[in-house]
């Protein structure tokens, strides 16, 4: 028991000791830290903080921190309530344990799991861009927790800013505006801990240009135009245009021509004619270029060359031309277009005159078929490539006339004559040439389907008869028929013959009577309106001409050049007015304001008082003649107004309507007995007499409102080439004599109206000739130089060429020679023609 008691005592003291000891320990065990939290995270450090536990001996607390995670575990001690743990790996989880120690006694531990911040993303770059989206890519930063990384992308630019998240290492941002800058920021988040951000600026692609087209095209240039790309605002773009000619293999950019512009059009010059060019256009903005637009277009070919008529019949014309010398002319096709002009016989063409026809050919010739005979055609030929046409080359050519058929040949006048009758040919015809036996003469174009008698034949003979149609210098002989003259006389023929003989005799008597009356009535001239300073005596004139003819007309050349030197800078305001420009046949032949012939103005029609006509001074009268241009289609009405208002009874025409394929003057009088009306004026052709060199027509002008008429005689000289001179002076002198006799006898009415094409060359020469011969008659002296000078003060370019000036002298000289041989030759008005219309 004692032993038990003793052992009990020992156990009791042990338990007490232990109890005491425990009690002491228990009293000093500290409490754990409170509110352990993360204060900061970087890519290499974590700062933890906490609140010190409740207790009295807090100034003696030692805090122990232990961590493990990536790398070697570590521990730290501090008496502070926060700790910075560094040397850690970025983007990694760490498990921390924190406890308190007091005098070697430790509290329970608090733990927490914390990650370091990830590193920033690496190698941020643009992977792709379109007109509405941008794709960015980057490399994942290091870190053991990288599978938990979340990437944040934020952007701003045109439009509202935006953001996105992804766990991928690339992102497509769409819904953007084309051609615009965007600024992107990208960072990584690991459980809310973000890295620092990477930024980059990327632009979207501009849209493509639209409506790329050719705006203008020539044979050496192309103007491209396009519409600016569709974009958010109206920014400025740089356009890159490149082009390459066909047949070039583009191996590198040196084969391509490039140009840039900020304009939405570009003109490329010095290109090859008729060649295909391929263009590309790209819009660039912010250094980013749009997709390309391409266009392949051809330049216009050059004109065809040397277009001419190779052959013609009365229903076809073969044209031939040369290809232009363009690099690809073998690829050209050619177009031939033609339209019929008018011919004096009016509209025989059922298709109408203005209808044109067009044909394509691969050759450099074309036979145009199914044409009307005796008709002037206006041809145009042009080359074409890829539906691009060159400018057209024009040519006026006439088909040959068609031959007539002689329908009858009847003997008259007891076999001394025949009456011929022939059909009017299809198409145009100007005149007919008759050949009966050895005799030959012309008939005017009104003679077909009439009866034309031929005299001077012998009875009881056979005569071959051919009638040749004449048109535009071309001749179409009919089939020959044989005319047989009868044996005995025929009364009808005789009567016709006598009547025909009597008419000219009657006229002659009438003329001479009138002339006599006039010379009695008129007083002697009162002196010149102007005086000739260098007048030449009649007897010295031949010497003067010979002197000037020496050394190939050196003297005349000097005189004429002196005339040309004197320019009269007088105003031509009315002729130059825009509303009158279409009324002038030639831009350089315009009347002076002071000497022009004004028309009566039509109310509210500007320029209605203008016609290209000038008064010409004569011996006594400062307005003795009117010189005017050949009427244009649009001035025929004005021309007849001029005739009516001036009450001119005489027209002198010195040109043909068409000469060498060129229209020189509109056919302003009626073609046949059917009257023509121009405004209030009606013109009727009463009769016509065709002679070898000229035609005399009688016309009546009727004012429909005023119910008055004016007889007008037209003297039409037909064999005077433009710019040139007639081959002989005699027909001209004869023509002037006939004209002068008529003028002397026609005392009523206004000044005679003289015209050719421009109304200066031939017109000037004829007026000068008439005035100078009258001066010679009256004064026995003559002054060609000073009179031409005088004319040129009233209208430019009168007597237009040196050859005409020389011809004027030759006419005067010939006149002097004739009058010295036959001093008072007041011959018959017209030579008795062999042929007469019946
Ligand atoms: C510590 O945390 C408790 C609750 O967990 C809270 O009531 C207290 O205010 C916190 N103290 C501090 C100093 O943050
Ligand atoms: C932490 O980031 C800085 C800059 O971002 C960098 O220079 C440094 O190397 C990074 N530290 C580690 C351990 O990656
Ligand atoms: C604490 O760290 C030291 C070195 O810094 C080391 O020697 C010791 O073993 C560590 N203690 C524990 C309990 O890990
Ligand atoms: C404890 O921390 C505070 C701020 O956190 C600091 O100012 C102080 O110097 C620290 N004390 C020691 C002993 O590290
Ligand atoms: C530690 O304990 C001893 C006795 O057990 C005591 O004397 C000493 O003061 C204590 N130290 C602190 C810092 O409390
Ligand atoms: C911290 O991580 C460890 C291991 O990953 C885990 O066992 C523990 O429960 C975590 N603690 C907290 C507070 O999440
Ligand atoms: C982008 O281009 C396509 C095709 O070119 C076009 O249809 C689309 O409208 C464009 N988007 C924008 C935003 O302009
Ligand atoms: C991110 O985008 C959403 C809508 O997509 C928006 O509500 C939010 O404010 C954006 N955040 C930032 C920081 O822009
Ligand atoms: C992330 O942080 C939240 C608090 O911020 C915590 O509740 C959660 O457990 C953390 N996740 C991980 C995987 O540690
Ligand atoms: C086309 O080019 C011609 C010749 O260069 C020029 O006269 C004409 O005005 C241009 N037309 C346009 C629409 O640019
Ligand atoms: C030819 O005729 C066509 C229609 O038939 C017309 O459009 C064109 O202008 C004409 N050309 C000429 C030069 O008259
Ligand atoms: C011209 O030649 C081309 C190709 O050789 C052919 O297709 C076309 O029909 C020809 N045109 C004519 C009018 O012959």
Automatic annotation (TrEMBL):
What Pfam families does the record point to?
A: fn3, Y_phosphatase
Q: Enzyme group, top EC level?
A: hydrolase
**Topology of the protein relative to the lipid bilayer:** Single-pass type I membrane protein
Keywords in UniProt for this one? Answer: Cell membrane, Cell projection, Cytoplasm, Disulfide bond, Glycoprotein, Hydrolase, Membrane, Phosphoprotein, Protein phosphatase, Receptor, Signal, Transmembrane, Transmembrane helix
Which CDD domains does this UniProt record tie to the protein? FN3, TM_EGFR-like
Give the Fibronectin type-III domain ranges: 32-119, 120-207, 208-302, 303-403
Describe the location of the Tyrosine specific protein phosphatases domain by residue ranges: 733-806
Which residue range or ranges hold the Tyrosine-protein phosphatase domain? 556-815
Tell me yes or no: is Isomerase among this UniProt entry's keywords.
no
Query: Per its UniProt record, what Gene3D superfamilies does this chain match?
Result: Immunoglobulins (2.60.40.10), Protein tyrosine phosphatase superfamily (3.90.190.10)
**Where is this protein found?**
Apical cell membrane; Cell projection, Microvillus membrane; Cytoplasm
InterPro entries according to UniProt: FN3_dom (IPR003961), FN3_sf (IPR036116), Ig-like_fold (IPR013783), Prot-tyrosine_phosphatase-like (IPR029021), PTP_cat (IPR000242), RTP_Phos/Ushers (IPR050713), Tyr_Pase_AS (IPR016130), Tyr_Pase_cat (IPR003595)
Q: Which GO terms describe its cellular component?
A: apical plasma membrane; cytoplasm; microvillus membrane; receptor complex
Which region is the signal sequence? Answer: 1-27
One MF term in the entry's GO annotations: protein tyrosine phosphatase activity
Subunit organization: Homodimer; disulfide-linked. Interacts with LCK. Interacts (phosphorylated form) with GRB2 (via SH2 domain). Interacts (phosphorylated form) with FYN (via SH2 domain). Interacts (via extracellular domain) with CEACAM20 (via extracellular domain); the interaction dephosphorylates CEACAM20.
Give the protein name, as stated in the record.
Receptor-type tyrosine-protein phosphatase H
Task: Name its species.
Answer: Mustela putorius furo
- Gene giving rise to this polypeptide: LOC101690930
């Amino acid at each position: 028991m004692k032993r038990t008691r003793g052992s009990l005592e020992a156990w009791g003291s042990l338990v007490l000791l232990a109890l005491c000891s425990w009690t002491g320990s228990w009293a000093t065990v500290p409490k754990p830290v409170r509110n352990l939290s993360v204060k900061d995270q970087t890519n290499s450090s974590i700062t933890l903080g906490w609140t010190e536990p409740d207790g009295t001996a807090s100034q003696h607390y030692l805090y122990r921190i232990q961590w493990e995670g990536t790398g070697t575990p570590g521990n730290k001690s501090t008496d502070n309530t926060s700790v910075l743990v560094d040397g850690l790996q970025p983007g990694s989880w760490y498990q921390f344990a924190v406890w308190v120690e007091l005098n070697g006694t430790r509290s329970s531990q608090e733990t927490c799991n914390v990650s370091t911040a990830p590193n920033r993303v690496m190698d941020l770059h643009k992977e792709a861009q379109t007109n509405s989206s941008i794709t960015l890519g980057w490399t994942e930063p290091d870190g053991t927790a990288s599978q938990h990384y979340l990437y944040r992308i934020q952007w701003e630019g045109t439009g509202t800013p935006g953001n996105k998240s992804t766990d991928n290492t690339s992102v497509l941002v769409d819904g953007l505006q084309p051609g615009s800058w965007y600024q992107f920021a990208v960072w990584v988040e690991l459980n809310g801990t973000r890295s620092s951000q990477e930024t980059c600026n990327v632009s979207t692609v501009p849209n493509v240009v639209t409506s790329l087209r050719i705006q203008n095209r020539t044979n050496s240039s192309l103007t491209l135009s396009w519409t600016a790309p569709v974009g958010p605002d109206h920014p400025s773009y740089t356009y890159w245009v490149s082009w390459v000619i066909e047949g070039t293999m583009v191996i590198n950019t040196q084969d391509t021509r490039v140009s840039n512009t900020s304009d939405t059009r570009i003109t490329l010059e010095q290109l090859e004619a008729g060649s295909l060019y391929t263009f590309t256009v790209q819009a660039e903005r912010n250094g980013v270029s749009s997709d390309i637009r391409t266009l392949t277009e051809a330049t216009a070919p050059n004109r065809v060359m040397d277009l001419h008529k190779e052959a013609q019949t009365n229903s076809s014309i073969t044209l031939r031309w040369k290809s232009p010398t363009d690099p690809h002319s073998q690829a050209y096709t050619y177009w031939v277009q033609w339209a019929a002009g008018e011919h004096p016989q009016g509209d025989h063409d059922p298709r109408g005159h203005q209808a044109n026809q067009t044909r394509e050919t691969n050759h450099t010739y074309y036979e145009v078929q199914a044409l009307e005979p005796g008709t002037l055609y206006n041809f145009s030929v042009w080359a074409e490539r890829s539906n691009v046409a060159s400018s057209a080359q024009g040519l006026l050519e006439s088909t040959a006339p068609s031959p007539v058929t002689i329908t009858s040949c009847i003997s008259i006048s007891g076999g001394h004559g025949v009456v011929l009758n022939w059909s009017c040919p299809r198409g145009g015809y100007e005149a007919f040439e008759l050949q009966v036996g050895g005799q030959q003469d012309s008939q005017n174009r009104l003679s077909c389907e009439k009866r034309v008698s031929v005299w001077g034949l012998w009875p009881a003979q056979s005569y071959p008869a051919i009638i040749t149609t004449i048109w535009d210098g071309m001749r179409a002989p009919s089939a020959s028929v044989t005319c047989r003259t009868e044996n005995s006389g025929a009364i009808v023929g005789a009567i016709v013959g006598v009547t025909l003989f009597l008419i000219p005799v009657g006229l002659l008597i009438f003329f001479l009577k009138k002339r006599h009356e006039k010379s009695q009535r008129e007083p002697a001239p009162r002196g010149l309106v102007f005086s000739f300073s260098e007048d030449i005596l009649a007897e010295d004139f031949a010497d003067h001409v010979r002197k000037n003819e020496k050394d190939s007309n050196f003297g005349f050349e000097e005189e004429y050049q002196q005339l040309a030197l004197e320019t009269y800078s007088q105003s031509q305001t009315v002729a130059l007015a825009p509303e009158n420009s279409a009324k002038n046949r030639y831009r350089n032949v315009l009347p002076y304001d002071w000497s022009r012939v004004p028309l009566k103005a039509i109310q509210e029609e500007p320029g209605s008082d203008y016609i290209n006509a000038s008064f010409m001074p004569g011996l006594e009268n400062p307005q003795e003649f009117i010189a005017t241009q050949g009427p244009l289609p649009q001035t025929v009405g004005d021309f007849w107004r001029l005739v009516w208002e001036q009450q001119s009874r005489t027209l002198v025409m010195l040109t043909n309507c068409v000469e060498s394929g060129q229209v020189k003057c509109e056919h302003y009088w009626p073609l046949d007995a059917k009257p023509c009306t121009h405004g209030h004026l009606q013109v009727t052709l009463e009769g016509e007499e065709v002679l070898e060199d000229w035609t005399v027509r009688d016309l009546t002008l009727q004012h429909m409102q005023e119910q008055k008429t004016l007889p007008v005689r037209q003297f039409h000289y037909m064999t005077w080439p433009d710019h040139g001179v007639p081959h002989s002076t005699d027909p001209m002198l004869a023509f002037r004599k006939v004209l002068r006799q008529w003028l002397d006898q026609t005392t009523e009415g206004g000044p005679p109206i003289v015209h050719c094409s421009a109304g200066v060359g031939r017109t000037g020469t004829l007026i000068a000739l008439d005035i100078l011969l009258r001066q010679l008659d009256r004064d026995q002296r003559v002054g060609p130089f000073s009179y031409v000078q005088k004319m040129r003060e009233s209208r430019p370019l009168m007597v237009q060429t040196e050859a005409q000036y020389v011809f004027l002298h030759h006419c005067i000289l010939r006149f002097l020679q004739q009058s010295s041989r036959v001093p008072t030759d007041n011959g018959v008005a017209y030579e008795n023609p062999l042929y007469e219309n019946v």
